[in-house]
Amino acid sequence: MNLNSVSTNEGYVWVRQGVWLFKQNPLGFLMLVFMYVFIAQLAVMIPLAGVFAVLILTPALSVGFMTACRQTIQKERILPTAYLAAFRSNNPEVKKRILQLGLVYAVMIFALSLIASMVIDFQALLPFVTNDKPITPEVMQTLYYSLMIGGVIYIPIAMLMWFAPVLVAWADMPPSKAMFASWMACWTNKGAFFYYITIWSVALIAIPLILGMLMDVLGLSQYASFVVAPLSMAGLTVMYCSFFATWKGCFTGNDVEQLSNHSDQF
Question: Residue 256's pLDDT is what?
Answer without folding.
Answer: 45
